[in-house]
Q: What sequence folds into this?
């Protein structure tokens, strides 16, 4: 297995990044399970629920860009610790809220750390792992999103089985403080990659490496189309994952246990999809993999939300839906790292990924708004189809970077 070819330091970094992104997922996805409860407890509308999701995603975009800039200046490991501390604290604080306005604030604050963690962790892995395994390594880290999502689904089922809904949602937010212990592991075991130290010394000697250089004539085309690529992926993903629990409960009339069961099949598909796509991105190339998964995901989401199917068929389709819906992201961290030179990697990757997150963040709110006049399933399907079409279009003018040597980039 390829992991056996990595060094002890590489494996420690993989563990830290995997755990960090997994708890990132838990803290974000737990809200999507709680929307139906909050709509009852607070008489919160679907539009307001969408605003909370969008607010967190917008701030996560700002946090991701800022973290990328800070990581280029202060180091990957230090900023990674800051982001974990930030998002776990505000997830915990969300459990004490008592109104839409209060929850909007705490989730928006949580978003800053949520966005920053991925930006820094993906750069750290891309720089630490040897080129021939970079796609697989970043994809493995990306797969931890499914683990965190699955943990959220299991916690949702377990806590709701133990407590009434009026108390259970608070407990689930409070559990978000536990990942803060990851900071101690990072501090004891992880160091910044050698590439970072070499680049820092070069920047001091020669100057350059300012974050606005990603908009310079030599980088502008890359920055624009990489941002659009991210926008298509994020818009589709957030439209589906934010509203799927509500779709299953409200339109498909599933119970808490039934919803959790369907979502666990989807999440299992997501985990396998991350790993398979990570392998394919190193074999077929980043762009081909993106276009393949966009086509398959768009088709499946349309079937899932538009065509009358039985509950059993929906359960069966959940696995391939999760496979393609999540798998498309596996090559993204490696691809963005390979598109930008060493001195701009954190800034460029942080901006492009999180521009997509900011633009895609409007899809949950738009779904909530349009679903007041259209069936929720139809709106989800249309949003996803448009996003995946954008993925395919954005891939065409971008270069293939499979196997690129980051140490040689300048």
A:
């Amino acid at each position: 297995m390829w992991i056996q070819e990595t060094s002890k330091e590489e494996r420690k970094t993989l563990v830290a990044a995997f755990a960090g992104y997994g708890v990132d997922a838990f803290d974000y996805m737990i809200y999507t399970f709680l929307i139906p409860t909050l709509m009852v407890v607070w008489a919160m509308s679907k539009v307001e629920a969408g605003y909370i999701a969008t607010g967190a995603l917008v701030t996560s975009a700002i946090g991701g860009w800022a973290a990328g800039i800070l990581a280029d200046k202060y180091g990957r490991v230090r900023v990674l610790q800051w982001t974990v501390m930030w998002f776990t604290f505000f997830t915990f604080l969300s459990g004490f809220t008592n109104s839409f306005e209060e929850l909007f604030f705490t989730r928006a604050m949580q978003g800053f750390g949520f966005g920053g963690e991925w930006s820094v962790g993906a750069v750290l892995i891309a720089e630490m792992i040897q080129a021939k395994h970079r796609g697989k390594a970043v994809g493995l880290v990306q797969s931890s999103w499914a683990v965190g999502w699955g943990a959220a689904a299991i916690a949702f089922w377990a806590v709701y089985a133990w407590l009434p809904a009026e108390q259970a949602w608070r407990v689930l937010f409070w559990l978000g403080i536990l990942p803060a212990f990851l900071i101690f592991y990072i501090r004891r075991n992880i160091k910044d990659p050698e590439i970072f130290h070499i680049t820092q010394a070069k920047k001091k000697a020669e100057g350059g490496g300012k974050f606005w250089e990603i908009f310079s004539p030599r980088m502008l085309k890359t920055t624009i189309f990489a941002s659009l690529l991210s926008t298509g992926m994020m818009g589709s993903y957030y439209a589906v994952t934010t509203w799927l629990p509500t779709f299953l409960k409200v339109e498909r009339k599933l119970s808490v246990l039934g919803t959790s069961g369907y979502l666990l099949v989807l999440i299992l598909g997501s985990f396998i999809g991350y790993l398979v796509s990570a392998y394919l991105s190193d074999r077929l190339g980043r762009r081909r993999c993106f276009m393949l998964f966009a086509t398959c995901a768009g088709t499946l989401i349309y079937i899932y939300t538009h065509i009358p199917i039985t509950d059993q068929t929906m359960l069966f389709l959940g696995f391939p839906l999760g496979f393609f819906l999540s798998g498309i992201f596996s090559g993204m961290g490696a691809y963005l790292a390979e598109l930008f030179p060493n001195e701009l990697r954190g800034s460029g990757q942080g901006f492009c990924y999180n521009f997509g997150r900011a633009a895609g963040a409007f899809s949950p709110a738009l779904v909530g708004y349009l679903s007041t006049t259209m069936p929720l399933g139809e709106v989800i399907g249309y949003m996803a189809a448009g996003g995946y079409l954008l993925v395919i279009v954005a891939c065409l003018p971008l270069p293939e970077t499979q196997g690129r040597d980051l140490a040689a980039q300048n």
